[in-house]
From TrEMBL:
Protein name: DEAD/DEAH box helicase
InterPro entries per the UniProt record, alphabetical: DEAD/DEAH_box_helicase_dom, DEAD/DEAH_RhlB, DEAD_box_RNA_helicase, Helicase_ATP-bd, Helicase_C-like, P-loop_NTPase, RNA-helicase_DEAD-box_CS, RNA_helicase_DEAD_Q_motif
Pfam families, per the entry: DEAD (PF00270), Helicase_C (PF00271)
Residue ranges of domain DEAD-box RNA helicase Q in the record: 57-85
């Protein structure tokens, strides 16, 4: 107690003198003491902002910090996009998100960065066969693209990822999930199988993302999505992203989201302003020649051609190869390895033309695609928006050309209603005659028609004139005798057998003889 009283007495004695000396130094302009006085909390914050204002710019202003911020900047993400500015802060706060954004708007980073920021603080201890976060994608290509983005943004961290999708070995996926992972990217079909078999457990999944939910609806995955969402942790955080919002998607969103923050950066069906869109009028038989003429332009350096069906895509590739163009194709009948090989070749520039069905309308993020050509208009008008969204990404310029047959006018009007603009006509080939096929192709078609003609046509030029009609298996020709009576002979075949039968068993005219075994005949 005495020591305490002495300390208080000392402070009371010397404090006025110290303050007087301090004020005199400040009036004299002493910079060190002025800086010392500025070490109050409010002044400290102002000093830090003045010394390094860049820390509160870009993604740092959205709450991204530490190694994740460095990896984001190293990956080339300098300034956040509108969807990221609106979606990242609420997710960091723990809110659910309902996002509507056009393709190529940057929504992948909008939902991956908050998840990475939260998981980075949890450590490396994981439960076997579990995933802390689950991202559902409708197609294999989109799932692969999402995992590549996550690896890029989480470089230098301990975060682990796994892919679960169809078309590849199940064994490698089960082995990857055995120790547990931080983020699982999956397609609904294969994930449903593994969850049913107990190879994947979702009860510890606290972050759920549905990307391109409207596409999952179109592909028939809506029930699988409901079951998967029901198997995750009850206190999960959910992000729901879709390019369009039909009534079925709104119903699904209401069933799995809790008081979501609605984020919409562009109206549904809006296309990027950097894409120049136009149509080329051509009949179906003219489209091959028109496409070949277009591809002869060196400005079309990297081209995606969309066909409506898988067989149509294969036919376009065959025609391009006959016309001297090298092209690759991806569609649902191709294995995952074949599809990935074609996509990698298109990405590294060794393949100039990639022909695809609508399965590739989403999830392909290849920088530098100069042109998108719609060889056929899609059945769903919304798919047009996703198709042309492969070009003009990240602010780059792009061109979208659509070949329109007169029978596709109704589909064209539906597309124009969706995008709320009338597409200009770049060229009109309807007044031109249909091109003639190649000689070899014409000869093959002639041979097929020739083979379908009756056999009299083939033997007409042989000696002896046309052959008589075949009666089959060496039977006598169908003819009548001179008296115009019975066929083959005056005595019908089998007359002896009929004579040996009991009375009353002869066949009536126009009726079949009853079936009787040989033993039964002998017994009779």
């Amino acid at each position: 107690m005495k020591r305490g009283h002495d300390s208080a007495a000392v402070r009371a004695c010397f404090l006025p003198a110290v303050l007087l000396f301090h004020d005199s130094l400040l009036m004299a302009g002493c910079a060190p003491l002025r800086a010392l006085r500025g070490c109050m909390p409010h002044e400290r914050r102002k000093t830090l902002q003045t010394e390094n204002p860049a820390k509160l710019e870009g993604f740092a202003s959205l709450g991204i910090t530490g190694a994740l911020l460095k990896a984001t900047e190293a990956a080339g993400f300098d300034s956040p996009k509108p969807i990221q500015i609106k979606a990242i802060p609420p997710q960091i706060e723990g809110r659910d998100i309902l996002g509507v954004a056009q393709t190529g708007s940057g929504k992948t980073a909008a939902y991956t960065l908050p998840i990475l920021s939260s998981i980075a603080a949890l450590g490396t201890k994981r439960l076997p066969r579990t995933a802390r976060a689950l991202i559902l994608a409708p197609t294999r290509e989109l799932a692969v693209q999402i995992e590549e983005t996550i690896r890029l943004l989480s470089k230098g961290t301990h975060i682990s990822t796994a892919l679960v999708l169809g078309g590849v070995s199940r064994f490698s996926q089960v082995k990857r999930m055995a120790p547990g992972v931080d983020i699982l990217i999956a397609t609904p079909g294969r994930l449903t199988d593994l969850v049913r078999e107990g190879e994947v457990k979702l009860h510890e999944t606290r972050w759920l993302v549905l990307d391109e939910a409207d596409r999952m609806l179109d592909m028939g995955f809506i029930n699988d999505v409901r079951r998967i969402a029901g198997a995750t942790h009850r206190d999960r955080q959910t992000a729901f992203f879709s390019a369009t919002m039909p009534s079925e998607i709104e119903s699904l969103a209401r069933s799995i989201l809790k008081d979501p923050v609605h984020v919409e950066v562009a109206p549904q069906g809006t296309t990027a302003a950097e894409i120049r869109q136009s149509v080329v009028l051509a009949r179906l038989k003219q489209k091959r020649k028109v496409l070949a003429t277009m591809l002869a332009d060196p400005a079309m350096s990297s081209v995606m051609v969309f066909a409506r069906t898988k067989h149509g895509a294969d036919r376009v590739v065959r025609d391009l190869e006959r016309d001297g163009f090298s092209a690759a194709v991806i569609h649902g009948n191709k294995s995952q390895n074949a599809r990935q090989k074609a996509l990698n070749g298109f990405r590294d520039g060794s393949v100039r033309i990639l022909v695809a069905t609508d399965i590739a309308a989403r999830g392909i993020d290849v920088p530098g695609i100069s042109h998108v050509v719609n060889f056929d208009l899609p059945d769903e008008a919304e798919t047009y928006v996703h198709r042309i969204g492969r070009t003009g990404r990240n602010g780059a310029d792009g061109v979208a050309l659509t070949l329109v047959d007169p029978n596709e006018n109704a589909k064209l009007r539906a597309v124009e209603r969706i995008i709320r603009m009338k597409l200009p006509v770049a060229a009109d080939h309807l007044g031109e005659p249909d091109p003639q096929g190649e000689p070899r192709i014409r000869q093959a078609e002639s041979d097929r028609e020739h083979a379908q003609q009756p056999r009299e046509h083939h033997r007409a030029g042989r000696p002896g004139g046309p052959a008589k009609p075949r009666q089959g298996f060496g039977k006598k020709p169908f003819s009548a005798n001179k008296e115009g009576g019975k066929r083959f002979s005056d005595k019908p075949q089998g007359a002896k057998r009929f004579a040996e039968q009991p009375a009353g068993e002869n066949r009536a005219p126009g009726k079949k003889r009853p079936f009787r075994r040989r033993g039964q005949q002998n017994a009779a």
